[in-house]
């Protein structure tokens, strides 16, 4: 966001500190955590946060999938031919009498 606006991300974080301190006045641990990342590269922090968030989403989706046995997926079967399948169990039409 700051790159699109043409600003320096570190300068933006520094300028936002007083506002964040006022908003998070009741949460001193939050400000301590914010301050621990002050000297880190914002681009790296965004990439790490994105990777973590994506990992959480994918783990959540994987947990919702039905369990499957380990091993390779079964080979796909060919589709059934169109129309009724010929069967040898159909009664034959008798031409003679019983």
Structural notes for this entry:
- There is one protein chain.
- The chain is an all-alpha fold and 98 residues long.
- It has a domain at 2-64.
- It has 4 helices and no strands.
- The chain is elongated and about 70 Å long.
- The mean pLDDT is 78.
Summarize the structure.
By secondary structure, the chain is mainly alpha-helical. It has helices at 2-5, 9-23, 28-36, 42-64.
What topology emerges from the helices and strands here?
Elements: H1 2-5, H2 9-23, H3 28-36, H4 42-64
Radius of gyration: 33 Å
The tally of helices reads 4
Strand content: under 5%
Label the structural class: mainly alpha
Range of helix content: 40-55%
Distance between the termini: 90 Å
Strand element count: 0
Which geometry do the CA atoms define? elongated
- The sequence of SSEs as H and E is HHHH
Mean residue pLDDT: 78
Q: Could you list the spans in which at least 5 consecutive residues all have pLDDT below 50?
A: none
Main sheet attributes: strand count, strand direction, barrel closure? none
């Amino acid at each position: 966001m700051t790159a699109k606006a043409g600003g320096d991300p570190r300068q933006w974080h520094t300028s936002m500190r007083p506002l964040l301190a006022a908003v998070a006045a009741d949460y001193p641990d939050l400000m301590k955590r914010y301050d621990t990342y002050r000297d880190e590269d914002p681009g790296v922090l965004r990439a790490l946060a994105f990777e973590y968030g994506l990992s959480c989403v994918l783990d959540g989706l994987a947990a919702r999938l039905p369990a499957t046995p380990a091993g390779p997926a079964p080979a796909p079967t060919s589709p059934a031919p169109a129309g009724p399948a010929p069967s040898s169990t159909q009664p034959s039409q008798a031409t003679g009498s019983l």
